C-alpha cells in the first residue's frame, strides 16, 4: 500500500496550519517536522516523524532556500533535540513522536541507527541519505535492508538509482520513502519497476497540494463484475470506419478492452495476443470497433473511440474482471466492412457491438475463450459488462436516456 509523508519544514508559514489540517483530514500516513511541539499536537492516526538533527532532505532538492530560514530551522531543531531524551530511552513516543529521522553518510552511522532500532522500547529510527554517487547508492541499498524506513533523496533526475534500490531491497521488511519535488514526480516514482517506492516525502506549498496528493494515492482501477451475454444475431452492415487501439502495454491472453454501441453495455474485445495466419501477433493492439462506439476508461468514464488517441488512458480488462490502466500510443482509423453483433444480457438488456467484418477480429467468451466474430452464431456466449449509469459527455449521470 503506497503512502506519503508530508514535510512541513519548508511549507510557507501562512499555509502551515491549513496544510496540517489537510494532512489530517486526508489521512496522510505521516507528517515530518523539526518541531516536536507541533508534532505532539497531531492525532495518533498520523505517523509523527521528528528530524532531531535536521537532515537537509528538501534543501538538497531546493538549493534556492534562504539561509536565514535554514538557520532558524536549525535553531528550532536544536531546541527540539535538547528537549528530547535519546531514542533508546523510549520516551519520544510518550511525547508524541513515532519515528526519529537521522542522516547517515557512512557505514558506521548506519550500523549505529540499526543498533538504536534493536534497543528494547526504543522509538523507531529511520535513516535519511542523499544519493549522489555509487558509494551513497550502495549505502542506501544497505540501509533499505536493515532500517524500518529509509528516506532517500536522489540528486539526479534519472530513476535508475531508484530501480537499483528497489531491486536490492525486494525482500526487505522496511519501507522505502523517496523524496519528490512535485506530484508529477510522485506519480512516476510510484510506477518505477511496476511496484514503485513504498512511500514518498513531499513538501506541499498549500493545502491544495495535499488534496491533490490524496487523489493520486487513491487512484486505483476497480474489479469489474462481468456478465455473460448471449448472441441474438450478427449482421453485415457494409462499409464504415473502425478503430484499432494500439496501447503502450502488453496485453495478457485473456485481456482486452470493453467496447459497445450503447453506454449501458459493453463486450470484451480481445487483444491481438493470439496467433493469426498471414500476420504476426500485435499484443499491444485491440481491433476495437466502429468509431461511434463507447469504450470504458478509468474513473468510470467513457470515451467514444473517435476521441481516443495518443496519451489517452483506457482500462485493460481481464476475463475475471480485473482491470489495469493502460496508455494509448496511437489509434488507427480505417474504412472497413463492418459487422453488427447483437446480444442480450441476463436482465434482458440489449448490448450491441459493431466491429470490422473479418475473421481475425475476436471477442472473449466465458473463461477467456477466444471467439472469431464472423463465426459467431445465435446462442453463443460472450463476456460483457453492464453499466448502471447513463452518460453525458462520458460522465455518469442520473437521467432518462434511451439508446436504440
UniProtKB/TrEMBL annotation:
Source species, domain of life: Bacteria
Compositionally biased tracts (Basic and acidic residues): 64-81
Domain named 3-dehydroquinate synthase C-terminal: residues: 229-403
One Pfam family of this chain: DHQS_2nd
Region (Disordered): 55-91
Span of domain 3-dehydroquinate synthase N-terminal: 1-216
Record keywords: Amino-acid biosynthesis, Aromatic amino acid biosynthesis
Record-linked NCBIfam families: PRK02290.1-3
PANTHER family: 3-DEHYDROQUINATE SYNTHASE, PTHR33563
Name by which UniProt lists this protein: 3-dehydroquinate synthase II family protein
Species this chain originates from: Streptomyces neyagawaensis
Amino acid at each position: 500500500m503506497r503512502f506519503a509523508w508530508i514535510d512541513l519544514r519548508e511549507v510557507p508559514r501562512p499555509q502551515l496550519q491549513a496544510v496540517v489540517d489537510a494532512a489530517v483530514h486526508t489521512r496522510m500516513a505521516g507528517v515530518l517536522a523539526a518541531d516536536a511541539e507541533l508534532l505532539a499536537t497531531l492525532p495518533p492516526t498520523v505517523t509523527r516523524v521528528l528530524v532531531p538533527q535536521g537532515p537537509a532532505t528538501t534543501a538538497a532538492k531546493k538549493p534556492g532556500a534562504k539561509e536565514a530560514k535554514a538557520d532558524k530551522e536549525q535553531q528550532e531543531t536544536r531546541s527540539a533535540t535538547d528537549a528530547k531524551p535519546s531514542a533508546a530511552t523510549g520516551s519520544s513516543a510518550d511525547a508524541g513522536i513515532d519515528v526519529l529521522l537521522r542522516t547517515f553518510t557512512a557505514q558506521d552511522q548506519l550500523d549505529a541507527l540499526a543498533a538504536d532500532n534493536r534497543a528494547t522500547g526504543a522509538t523507531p529510527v529511520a535513516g535519511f541519505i542523499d544519493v549522489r554517487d555509487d558509494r551513497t547508492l550502495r549505502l542506501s541499498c544497505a540501509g533499505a535492508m536493515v532500517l524500518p524506513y529509509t528516506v532517500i533523496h536522489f540528486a539526479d533526475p534519472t530513476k535508475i538509482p531508484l530501480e537499483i534500490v528497489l531491486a536490492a531491497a525486494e525482500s526487505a521488511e522496511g519501507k522505502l520513502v523517496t523524496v519528490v519535488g512535485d506530484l508529477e514526480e510522485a506519480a512516476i516514482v510510484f510506477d518505477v519497476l511496476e511496484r514503485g517506492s513504498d512511500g514518498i516525502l513531499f513538501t506541499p506549498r498549500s493545502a491544495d497540494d495535499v488534496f491533490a496528493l490524496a487523489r493520486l494515492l487513491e487512484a486505483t482501477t476497480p474489479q469489474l463484475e462481468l456478465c455473460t451475454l448471449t448472441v441474438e444475431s450478427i449482421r453485415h452492415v457494409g462499409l464504415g470506419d473502425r478503430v484499432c487501439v494500439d496501447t503502450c502495454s502488453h496485453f495478457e491472453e485473456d485481456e482486452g478492452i470493453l467496447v459497445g454501441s450503447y453506454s449501458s453495455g459493453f463486450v470484451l474485445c480481445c487483444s491481438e495476443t493470439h496467433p493469426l495466419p498471414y500476420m504476426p501477433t500485435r499484443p499491444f493492439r485491440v481491433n476495437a470497433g466502429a468509431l461511434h462506439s463507447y469504450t470504458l476508461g478509468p474513473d468510470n468514464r467513457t470515451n467514444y473511440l473517435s476521441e481516443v488517441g495518443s496519451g489517452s488512458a483506457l482500462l485493460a480488462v481481464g476475463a475475471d474482471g480485473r482491470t489495469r490502466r493502460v496508455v494509448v500510443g496511437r489509434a488507427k482509423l480505417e474504412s472497413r466492412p463492418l459487422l453488427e453483433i447483437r446480444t442480450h444480457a441476463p436482465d434482458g438488456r440489449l448490448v450491441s457491438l459493431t466491429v470490422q467484418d473479418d475473421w481475425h477480429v475476436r471477442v472473449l467468451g466465458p473463461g477467456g475463450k477466444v471467439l472469431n466474430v464472423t463465426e459467431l452464431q445465435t446462442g453463443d456466449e460472450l463476456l460483457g459488462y453492464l453499466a448502471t449509469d447513463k452518460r453525458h459527455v462520458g460522465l455518469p449521470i442520473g437521467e432518462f436516456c434511451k439508446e436504440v
